[in-house]
Specification:
Layout: H1 2-8, H2 15-40, E1 49-50, E2 53-54, H3 58-75, H4 80-98, H5 100-105, H6 116-133, H7 146-150, H8 152-171, H9 175-183, H10 185-193, H11 201-206, H12 211-240
Helix pairs in contact: 2-4, 2-6, 3-4, 6-9, 8-9, 8-10, 9-10
Length: 252
Protein backbone atom coordinates (compact mmCIF):
# COMPACT_ATOMS: atom_id res chain seq x y z
CA UNK A 1 0.00 0.00 0.00
CA UNK A 2 2.79 2.41 0.92
CA UNK A 3 4.68 1.67 -2.30
CA UNK A 4 1.47 2.18 -4.33
CA UNK A 5 0.89 5.57 -2.70
CA UNK A 6 4.52 6.52 -3.25
CA UNK A 7 4.39 5.54 -6.92
CA UNK A 8 0.94 6.83 -7.95
CA UNK A 9 -0.09 9.66 -5.63
CA UNK A 10 2.72 11.10 -3.56
CA UNK A 11 5.82 12.76 -4.94
CA UNK A 12 8.83 10.50 -4.40
CA UNK A 13 10.30 10.92 -0.93
CA UNK A 14 7.24 12.68 0.53
CA UNK A 15 5.23 9.69 1.74
CA UNK A 16 6.56 10.00 5.34
CA UNK A 17 5.61 13.68 5.34
CA UNK A 18 2.09 12.84 4.16
CA UNK A 19 1.73 10.17 6.84
CA UNK A 20 3.04 12.54 9.50
CA UNK A 21 0.60 15.28 8.45
CA UNK A 22 -2.35 12.88 8.33
CA UNK A 23 -1.61 11.42 11.76
CA UNK A 24 -1.04 14.94 13.11
CA UNK A 25 -4.42 16.21 11.93
CA UNK A 26 -6.29 13.09 13.08
CA UNK A 27 -4.60 13.19 16.49
CA UNK A 28 -5.50 16.84 16.99
CA UNK A 29 -9.15 16.30 16.00
CA UNK A 30 -9.54 13.15 18.12
CA UNK A 31 -7.87 14.83 21.08
CA UNK A 32 -10.20 17.82 20.84
CA UNK A 33 -13.24 15.55 20.68
CA UNK A 34 -12.11 13.67 23.80
CA UNK A 35 -11.27 16.82 25.76
CA UNK A 36 -14.63 18.34 24.86
CA UNK A 37 -16.40 15.19 26.07
CA UNK A 38 -14.43 15.32 29.33
CA UNK A 39 -15.30 18.99 29.71
CA UNK A 40 -19.01 18.20 29.18
CA UNK A 41 -18.89 15.21 31.55
CA UNK A 42 -19.90 12.75 28.84
CA UNK A 43 -18.46 9.45 27.73
CA UNK A 44 -16.02 7.11 29.45
CA UNK A 45 -13.07 9.48 29.27
CA UNK A 46 -11.47 11.38 32.12
CA UNK A 47 -8.35 13.31 33.08
CA UNK A 48 -5.22 11.32 33.82
CA UNK A 49 -3.59 11.97 37.18
CA UNK A 50 -0.69 10.49 39.09
CA UNK A 51 -0.06 11.30 42.72
CA UNK A 52 -2.49 14.20 42.54
CA UNK A 53 -0.71 15.68 39.50
CA UNK A 54 -2.73 16.18 36.31
CA UNK A 55 -0.79 14.61 33.44
CA UNK A 56 -1.39 16.77 30.39
CA UNK A 57 -1.31 15.04 27.01
CA UNK A 58 1.63 17.21 26.01
CA UNK A 59 3.77 14.84 28.14
CA UNK A 60 3.22 11.68 26.05
CA UNK A 61 3.29 13.97 23.03
CA UNK A 62 6.85 15.02 23.79
CA UNK A 63 7.88 11.39 24.26
CA UNK A 64 6.34 10.32 20.94
CA UNK A 65 7.85 13.30 19.13
CA UNK A 66 11.32 12.41 20.40
CA UNK A 67 10.91 8.74 19.53
CA UNK A 68 9.49 9.44 16.08
CA UNK A 69 12.03 12.15 15.29
CA UNK A 70 15.11 10.15 16.26
CA UNK A 71 13.64 7.05 14.66
CA UNK A 72 13.13 8.91 11.38
CA UNK A 73 16.73 10.11 11.45
CA UNK A 74 17.93 6.57 11.98
CA UNK A 75 15.73 4.84 9.38
CA UNK A 76 15.93 7.33 6.52
CA UNK A 77 13.13 8.53 4.23
CA UNK A 78 11.94 5.24 2.73
CA UNK A 79 10.71 1.89 3.89
CA UNK A 80 8.29 0.62 6.50
CA UNK A 81 10.36 1.94 9.40
CA UNK A 82 10.28 5.48 8.02
CA UNK A 83 6.49 5.27 7.64
CA UNK A 84 6.03 4.08 11.23
CA UNK A 85 8.32 6.80 12.59
CA UNK A 86 6.43 9.41 10.57
CA UNK A 87 3.11 8.30 12.08
CA UNK A 88 4.56 8.28 15.60
CA UNK A 89 6.07 11.73 15.06
CA UNK A 90 2.78 13.12 13.70
CA UNK A 91 0.84 11.78 16.69
CA UNK A 92 3.36 13.30 19.08
CA UNK A 93 3.31 16.70 17.39
CA UNK A 94 -0.50 16.66 17.39
CA UNK A 95 -0.55 16.13 21.16
CA UNK A 96 2.14 18.76 21.76
CA UNK A 97 0.69 21.52 19.59
CA UNK A 98 -2.80 20.93 20.97
CA UNK A 99 -1.37 22.32 24.22
CA UNK A 100 0.95 24.86 22.64
CA UNK A 101 -0.70 27.69 24.59
CA UNK A 102 -0.01 25.84 27.85
CA UNK A 103 3.69 25.63 26.97
CA UNK A 104 3.76 29.28 25.91
CA UNK A 105 2.10 30.64 29.05
CA UNK A 106 3.35 27.94 31.45
CA UNK A 107 -0.19 27.77 32.77
CA UNK A 108 -3.30 25.67 32.15
CA UNK A 109 -5.00 28.02 29.67
CA UNK A 110 -6.54 25.24 27.56
CA UNK A 111 -10.13 26.54 27.80
CA UNK A 112 -9.34 30.26 27.97
CA UNK A 113 -8.95 32.93 25.31
CA UNK A 114 -5.18 32.40 25.43
CA UNK A 115 -5.81 28.77 24.56
CA UNK A 116 -6.87 29.80 21.07
CA UNK A 117 -3.19 30.16 20.21
CA UNK A 118 -2.97 26.37 20.10
CA UNK A 119 -5.59 26.25 17.35
CA UNK A 120 -3.85 29.00 15.39
CA UNK A 121 -0.53 27.17 15.54
CA UNK A 122 -2.14 23.90 14.43
CA UNK A 123 -3.84 25.56 11.45
CA UNK A 124 -0.59 27.29 10.45
CA UNK A 125 1.30 24.01 10.70
CA UNK A 126 -1.21 22.15 8.54
CA UNK A 127 -1.14 24.91 5.92
CA UNK A 128 2.67 25.07 5.77
CA UNK A 129 3.16 21.31 5.58
CA UNK A 130 0.42 21.15 2.96
CA UNK A 131 2.30 23.70 0.84
CA UNK A 132 5.48 21.64 1.13
CA UNK A 133 3.57 18.55 0.03
CA UNK A 134 2.20 20.54 -2.91
CA UNK A 135 5.76 21.15 -4.10
CA UNK A 136 6.76 24.43 -2.49
CA UNK A 137 10.18 24.72 -0.87
CA UNK A 138 11.41 27.29 1.67
CA UNK A 139 12.71 30.63 0.40
CA UNK A 140 11.72 30.05 -3.23
CA UNK A 141 14.20 27.24 -3.90
CA UNK A 142 11.48 25.33 -5.79
CA UNK A 143 11.39 28.09 -8.44
CA UNK A 144 15.02 27.46 -9.41
CA UNK A 145 16.14 25.18 -12.23
CA UNK A 146 18.66 22.42 -11.62
CA UNK A 147 21.39 24.58 -13.16
CA UNK A 148 20.51 27.47 -10.83
CA UNK A 149 20.57 25.14 -7.83
CA UNK A 150 24.04 24.00 -8.79
CA UNK A 151 25.15 27.64 -8.76
CA UNK A 152 25.86 28.04 -5.06
CA UNK A 153 26.20 31.80 -5.25
CA UNK A 154 22.83 32.24 -6.91
CA UNK A 155 21.18 29.78 -4.54
CA UNK A 156 22.55 31.52 -1.45
CA UNK A 157 21.49 34.92 -2.83
CA UNK A 158 17.92 33.68 -3.43
CA UNK A 159 17.65 32.25 0.08
CA UNK A 160 19.10 35.37 1.73
CA UNK A 161 16.86 37.78 -0.22
CA UNK A 162 13.69 35.81 0.55
CA UNK A 163 14.76 35.49 4.19
CA UNK A 164 15.15 39.28 4.38
CA UNK A 165 11.69 39.68 2.85
CA UNK A 166 10.28 37.51 5.65
CA UNK A 167 12.11 39.56 8.29
CA UNK A 168 10.73 42.83 6.90
CA UNK A 169 7.19 41.44 6.91
CA UNK A 170 7.70 40.22 10.48
CA UNK A 171 8.92 43.67 11.54
CA UNK A 172 5.66 45.08 10.15
CA UNK A 173 3.74 43.02 12.71
CA UNK A 174 2.43 40.48 10.18
CA UNK A 175 3.60 37.21 11.74
CA UNK A 176 1.33 34.94 9.70
CA UNK A 177 2.36 36.51 6.40
CA UNK A 178 6.02 36.29 7.42
CA UNK A 179 5.67 32.57 8.12
CA UNK A 180 3.94 31.88 4.82
CA UNK A 181 6.45 34.02 2.92
CA UNK A 182 9.13 31.51 3.91
CA UNK A 183 7.34 28.97 1.70
CA UNK A 184 5.75 31.36 -0.84
CA UNK A 185 7.99 34.42 -1.38
CA UNK A 186 5.19 36.21 -3.25
CA UNK A 187 3.36 36.52 0.07
CA UNK A 188 6.42 38.35 1.41
CA UNK A 189 6.34 40.83 -1.46
CA UNK A 190 2.68 41.57 -0.73
CA UNK A 191 3.48 42.06 2.94
CA UNK A 192 6.33 44.43 2.15
CA UNK A 193 4.20 46.83 0.07
CA UNK A 194 1.31 46.86 2.57
CA UNK A 195 1.12 49.14 5.58
CA UNK A 196 2.58 47.93 8.85
CA UNK A 197 0.39 47.18 11.85
CA UNK A 198 0.31 49.91 14.54
CA UNK A 199 2.76 49.24 17.33
CA UNK A 200 5.02 47.08 15.17
CA UNK A 201 8.78 47.84 15.06
CA UNK A 202 8.40 49.11 11.49
CA UNK A 203 5.57 51.49 12.44
CA UNK A 204 7.45 52.83 15.46
CA UNK A 205 10.52 53.47 13.33
CA UNK A 206 9.09 54.80 10.08
CA UNK A 207 5.61 56.15 10.94
CA UNK A 208 6.69 58.24 13.92
CA UNK A 209 6.84 61.44 11.86
CA UNK A 210 4.21 60.44 9.32
CA UNK A 211 0.84 61.01 10.99
CA UNK A 212 -1.09 60.29 7.78
CA UNK A 213 0.54 56.87 7.33
CA UNK A 214 0.04 56.16 11.03
CA UNK A 215 -3.67 57.01 10.80
CA UNK A 216 -4.09 54.86 7.67
CA UNK A 217 -2.39 51.95 9.42
CA UNK A 218 -4.73 52.23 12.42
CA UNK A 219 -7.82 52.44 10.20
CA UNK A 220 -6.81 49.52 7.97
CA UNK A 221 -5.95 47.33 10.94
CA UNK A 222 -9.23 48.15 12.66
CA UNK A 223 -11.28 47.33 9.55
CA UNK A 224 -9.39 44.11 8.90
CA UNK A 225 -9.68 42.87 12.48
CA UNK A 226 -13.37 43.70 12.62
CA UNK A 227 -13.99 41.86 9.33
CA UNK A 228 -12.06 38.68 10.10
CA UNK A 229 -12.04 38.28 13.89
CA UNK A 230 -15.64 37.01 14.00
CA UNK A 231 -15.29 34.29 11.32
CA UNK A 232 -11.91 33.26 12.72
CA UNK A 233 -13.33 32.84 16.23
CA UNK A 234 -16.30 30.83 14.91
CA UNK A 235 -13.97 28.52 13.02
CA UNK A 236 -11.81 28.02 16.11
CA UNK A 237 -14.87 27.34 18.26
CA UNK A 238 -16.12 24.82 15.70
CA UNK A 239 -13.01 22.66 15.68
CA UNK A 240 -11.76 23.23 19.23
CA UNK A 241 -14.70 24.29 21.37
CA UNK A 242 -15.58 27.62 22.92
CA UNK A 243 -13.32 28.94 25.68
CA UNK A 244 -14.64 29.59 29.15
CA UNK A 245 -16.30 33.00 29.57
CA UNK A 246 -13.98 35.58 31.04
CA UNK A 247 -15.24 36.71 34.46
CA UNK A 248 -16.03 40.38 34.87
CA UNK A 249 -13.66 42.60 36.92
CA UNK A 250 -16.26 42.78 39.69
CA UNK A 251 -16.45 38.96 39.96
CA UNK A 252 -12.67 38.75 39.95
Amino acid sequence: MGHWLQRNIVEPGKLPLLLALTSFVLTFLITRVITRLIRAGKGPFGNVSSGGVHIHHVVPGVVLTVVGGFGAVGTGREGFGAAVCAVVFGIGVGLVLDEFALILHLDDVYWTEEGRKSVEVVVLTVALVGLVLAGFAPFGVNDLSQEERNDRGGLITTVVVNFLFALVVLSKGKARMAIFSVIVPLVGLIGIVRLARPGSPWARRFYRRRPRARARAFLRTYRRDRRWSGPRRKFQDLIAGKPDPTPSPARR
